[in-house]
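Example 4.3 (complexes with small molecules)
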Amino acid sequence: MFRLTQQMEWLMSGQPLPPARKPPGPVVIWNLIRRCNLTCKHCYSTSADTHFRGELTTEEVFRTLEDLRQFRVPALILSGGEPLMRPDIYDIAHKARELGFYVGLSTNGTLINQDNIHAIASAGFDYVGISLDGDEETHDRFRQMKGAYRASLDAMMLCREHGIRVGGRFTLTEENAPQLPGMLDLMDRLDVDKFYLSHLNYAGRGNKNRKQDAFSRTTRDAMTALFDRCHAELKAGKSREYVTGNNDADAIWLLQWAREHYPQRAELQRQKLVHWGGNSSGVNIANIDNLGNVHPDTFWWNHHLGNVRQQAFSSIWRDTQDPLMLGLRQTPRPVEGRCASCQYLDICGGNTRVRAYQLTGNPWAEDPACYLTDEEINPDGPQQIPLLQA
Ligand SMILES: C[S@@+](CC[C@H](N)C(=O)[O-])C[C@H]1O[C@@H](n2cnc3c(N)ncnc32)[C@H](O)[C@@H]1O
Ligand code: SF4
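Answer. The structure with S-adenosylmethionine bound is encoded below.
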């Protein structure tokens, strides 16, 4: 996860480089339920409106929460499927807040209405992220439900009215990229607190439909538009938080942007980005799925590290000798191809290993969705055409 606003604010501030900070434990993204009322074309959890057997019970979730707390996990993102389809979602949220976690809810928003908004507000979520993948026509087609866009938009407004910190989550594809500026305008009109741009990852239906991924040129333009917007808003005194995920090349692209707009700060910015450290799957990000299986992140559901029914998360995470995890925890990661010769490997950490694995069967191959050119990453190397270049 790349906290764009934080980086941009610091870049503009002229402040000295703060010391690098090490988080106490990993942020856990927890897919509490796989069932969902939608069947989105890109869904990494391959969710559908059907009951999935063997999901963790409330008691099992509570027991795991205690363990996560002791392990100093700072934040939980409760996700799915559609987490609001779990009848005990409010009890889980209450318990998690009681234990002192930062608790985010990741929802498609279509099930938020007057009947449950009070329960959602009083559950005390620190943040509710609602997916919106383009204009009405695109979103409804992408999410395979007519009316989904309207319902998600209404949900955002309802959350705002009830004082809930709310934001939009947008998964970038070649098709919806032209709609990004309109989406950013909409976020401004709704006055939401946060905007999360998720690059497509190749898992579940997102892998089946990976041809929809944005071309490099498209991604570069989209990210520049996002940076410009974030910059302009900060200048105007607005404090909306912009965050991106699933493509750590965003940090390097920001460095290029800084070289153009704040050249005197660019070298320090580079150091700050190295402190940030790039992709943190298996290190500062962890995933528990609906059945209690632990994975290096949400997109590695084909790779199991253990199950919280048999072993505490803390012990699975701390004691694992899984080869993928050992590689993810290595500095630098044992990446190959373009990533191995990249002058920015210390910033992005080799980007997203799942995409490399899905394309080649080798988790250490180059990330096919890195949108930097060969010349940018290795000015002295032989020239090739990047895979996703349009
Ligand atoms: C799996 S969904 C679960 C929460 C809720 N059902 C929703 O759609 O917001 C979590 C988030 O991941 C995003 N997402 C799903 N599949 C993805 C993929 N293959 N690559 C990137 N983001 C993805 C969704 O758009 C959503 O914002
Ligand atoms: S992305 Fe979310 S809303 Fe869409 S099918 Fe998956 S879980 Fe459901």
